[in-house]
Amino acid sequence: MSKTYFIDSENVGDNWIALLSKAAADDTILVYYTMKSPHMNYRNIILLKESDKDVTFIECNYGNNALDFQLCTDLGYRVHDIGDGEFIIVSNDTGYDAVVRFWRKRGVKVKRIKGNACASVEAVEEPLLDEETVSPEAFAAAPEVAAPVVTATAEIPEETPAVVTVTEEAPASEETPSLDTPSEESTQPASLEEAQDILYCIGLDNLVDLHDALKKIFGEQSGKTFYTEFKSKTSYKSFISKHKKMSRDEKQKLYTGIVFKENKLDCPKGFTEFLLKSWKQKPNLNSLRSALLTKYQKNQAREYYDLIKAHIKILNNIK
User: For the whole model, what pTM was predicted?
Assistant: First the structure.
C-alpha cells in the first residue's frame, strides 16, 4: 500500500530528507512551506538533487497556523480523491491529532509521526491524547457524516493545479462502461478508448499510478472524470479481464504511444525499450536525461525528456 507523506516544514525543518532513502518507490512526499520555513542546508540539498524520489513542494500562505490549515485541507482532498493508501503527517505538533482521529473514525489510514522518525518509516505513530480519545461505543452511536465537499487553493508547481475543487460524485450505473463527455481544458477531447487502454495497462490494483497517469495524460478535469468512472464501476474489472491479453512490454509500448500521441508527437522506434533499459541501469532522472542525450539529437532528447519524466515511474511499475 502506497504512502503519502505530508511534511510540515515550519515544524520539522528538513528532517524529512531521511525519507528519500527510506520511503518506497511509489510513495509520495509533499513538502508544505512558507516564508518562515527553515532553510535547507547544502548537504540536504545535494541529497535531494541526487535522489530519484519525486518530491512536491507546496507553497502556503503565511500566518498563525496557516500552513497547518492548508496542509489539512489538502489532506482531505487527497483522501477523497485517492481513497486507498496510507496518509502520514510529519510534524511534532499534536494539534494534528484531531485530524488523525477524524479520518480514523471514517476508516481512513491516517497517522502522525515526529520529524526525527523519518529515518525509520516503520516508526510507530505518535499516541493520541487520552482525554480526547473517542470510545468505540461513542463512535457507534454517532450519526453518520456525509463525505465533505472540499475546495483547496494553493500555489503548486508543475502538473498539480493551483486550484482544486472536489465534489461528491453521483452514484454511477454499473451495467455498461460509459462516460458523459467531460469538460476539457484543451480543444481536443480526451479519448475514452485511450483512457481505457491506460486502465488496462495499469489495472485497478494500483490506483495511485492510475490516478496520476490519467491526470498527467488527459489533464486535471478529464483525468479525474475517467478515474472516478473506472474506480466506481465494478464493470470495469470485467472490462480488464476481457481485454485482449498483452505482455508487459506491449503494455509499456502502448502507454508510451498514448503519451506521445496526446502531445502530438511521433514515438521513435525502439524508444520504450531504450527508455526502460536506461532507467533500470540507473533509476534517476539525471541519468535518464544523459542517456537520452547520447541516443538522440540535443533538441529531440530534451523534448523527449520533458515529456516522459513525469511518466517513467508509472511506466516502470506496469506489470
Answer: 0.47
Residue 128: predicted pLDDT: 63
- The CA distance from 152 to 167, in Å, is 11
Element (H, E) at 31: strand 28-33
> How far from the centroid of its chain's Cα atoms is residue 60's Cα?
19
The per-residue pLDDT for 186 is 40
Sequence ranges of the domains in the chain: 3-141, 169-242, 248-317
Four-point Cα dihedral 208, 80, 29, 272, nearest 10: 20
Half-sphere exposure in the Cβ direction for 2 (13 Å, CA)? 19
CA distance 317 to 219: 21
Query: Are 99 and 111 spatial neighbours (Cβ–Cβ below 8 Å)?
Result: no
Look up cell 538522440; give the residue: 296
| Beta-bridge partners for 89 | 6, 112
SS3 of residue 83 by DSSP: coil
The C-alpha atoms of residue 35 and residue 25 are separated, in whole angstroms, by 30
Mean pLDDT calculated for residue range 7-31: 89
Question: Which DSSP state fits 309?
Answer: T
What CATH class does 3-141 carry? alpha beta
Q: Which of 219, 259, 210, 255 has the alpha carbon at shortest distance from 81?
A: 210
According to the model, what pLDDT value does residue 187 have?
36
DSSP string computed for 210-251:
HHHHHHHHH-HHHHHHHHHHHHH-THHHHHHHHSPP--HHHH
CA 116, CA 45: separation in Å to the nearest integer? Answer: 18
Q: How confident is the model at residue 163 (pLDDT cuts 50, 70, 90)?
A: very low
Distance CA 114, CA 107 (A): 22
Residue with the bigger pLDDT between 195 and 165: it is 195
- Per the CB < 8 A criterion, the answer to whether 39 and 13 are in contact is no
Q: Is 73 helix (H, G, I), strand (E, B) or coil?
A: helix
